[in-house]
Design a protein that fits this description.
The structure is a homodimer of 237-residue chains.
Chain A lengths: L7 H14 L11 H8 L3 H14 L2 E3 L5 E3 L14 H4 L7 E10 L3 H7 L6 E10 L2 E11 L4 H4 L10 H9 L3 E12 L2 H7 L6 E11 L4 E10 L4 E6 L1
Antiparallel strand pairs in A: 1-2, 3-4, 4-5, 5-8, 6-7, 7-8
Chain B binds a DNA duplex (19 and 19 nucleotides) through helix 3.
Chain lengths: 237, 237
DNA sequence: TAGTGGTCTAGACCACTTG
DNA sequence: AAGTGGTCTAGACCACTAC
């Protein structure tokens, strides 16, 4: 009945491993605290402490009265909220997305370096993000293969507007954390063309690396938009 | 012996109130968990849960083997880390600061609105942040009076390089959280002059509101620097 | 060695969600 | 009503820091 690892931190590691192994599937309930306490031969409080740690991390979601579940990841429109346009109207404006291209490419050295991926091939998705039909962001999204191979089959119009929930649904990969890097640059011809601006217009680039439940980087994203319309909010602790 | 509020959340609120009231001073140890349990007539675990909540918030700092203390606040060079220059050398470069002016001013409507301050007067400090003697950031820092009146007496060369620890030391105000807003603009004549650049050069502005232990805004800061040298890092959860 | 916080137990009862 | 997580108790023992 009882397993090796004692201590709530070891238990947390064990639980994390179950998530990684797919033994506990994303979006689904894990066993009750009482049954886990029995399984591992420890007190309820110890199980609760282990679960609390993973909940803090965003790996597990606790739901009072129901069950504790494995997170399906972020789902907010986490990129476009940084543009001023977003705030104007009273109503929630639904941002759209339009995939321009999705193709398999050879791995880019710079990307491999910053993500640590070992992939022999990447999927590169080019898309724009629009509000009221006007393109505001031009994005290049890189995904490692073979993890995301199911997306390679999709036609341009078959992609969801929100990618992270789509990753969860189609590829069983939950993005729960991301690191953004904001910098400024002058738009290149291609950027300007897609966004309907002049070459050399001030642009803001957000380079994002997104992480899954296991802490592994699973997406590299580079987005550019009009610097004049940009606003980024962040909290410092 | 026992006080009204039961439940760890009420206890946490009570403890927070003690910090606000100055009954528990910043940087100093609070009573041991055991003695608090006795004082409030609850179990140790309940006290621990209350303390954990405040520790999570950054209000209290737990120190295994020693005591739990009230936080003295952030102390990192939280603004200049966003510039590329910072990263070049192997050694830690010590950024400097130079106060240009410190004067009492009438409250600015925009600032009162975004902070909710009721102050009849503000302290405005103008300063630059430099590395290797070169000014990289031009900052305007607004502080509410009378809370910060002790700073009004200081001469320009008497200010510390790091303001947050100085607030804690001189005014007993601990900054534990801040919200930044990053945006892009073209430098005005004054900005450019201070930074040794041409008017109209691309600039990045970081507007920050900093909060103390009680969650009240205690500082409004507006910083501008060279957009081309700027990099902002943030984590998304 | 004394005092602090950290971990753990084995219960009890409460609050929320669902059938 | 049954099952889940949330709160609380009254202990025990461990691990770290200081003197």
């Amino acid at each position: 009945m009882s397993k090796n690892p004692l201590g709530y931190q070891n238990l947390a590691a064990t639980f994390r491993a179950r998530v990684v192994a797919g033994e506990w599937r994303i979006g689904q309930a894990i066993p009750s605290e009482a049954s886990l306490a029995k399984e591992f031969g420890v007190a309820l409080g110890t199980i609760r402490q282990a679960i609390a740690e993973l909940a803090e991390d965003g790996v597990l979601i606790k739901r009072h009265g129901k069950s504790t579940a494995v997170s399906s990841g972020l789902n907010g429109q986490s990129m476009l909220r940084f543009f001023r346009y977003q705030l104007e109207g009273q109503k929630q404006i639904l941002p759209q997305a339009k995939v321009l291209e999705c193709k398999q490419i050879k791995p880019d050295k710079e990307i491999l370096k910053s993500t640590g991926w070992k992939s022999k091939a990447l999927l590169r998705i080019q898309r724009t993000r629009l509000i009221h039909g006007q393109p505001l962001l031009y994005e290049l999204i890189y995904l490692p293969l073979p993890q995301f191979k199911k997306l390679a089959r999709l036609k341009a119009n078959e992609f969801d507007d929100l990618f992270y929930p789509m990753y969860a649904r189609v590829c069983e990969i939950a993005v729960i954390k991301a690191k953004d890097q904001v910098s400024f640059e002058l738009m290149k011809k291609m950027d300007a063309k897609v966004l309907g601006m002049k070459e050399g217009h001030p642009g803001v680039r957000v380079t994002r690396i997104a992480y899954d439940l296991t802490g592994e980087p699973v997406e590299y994203r580079s987005s550019i938009g009009d610097a004049m319309a940009f606003r980024y909010f962040a909290e410092v602790h």
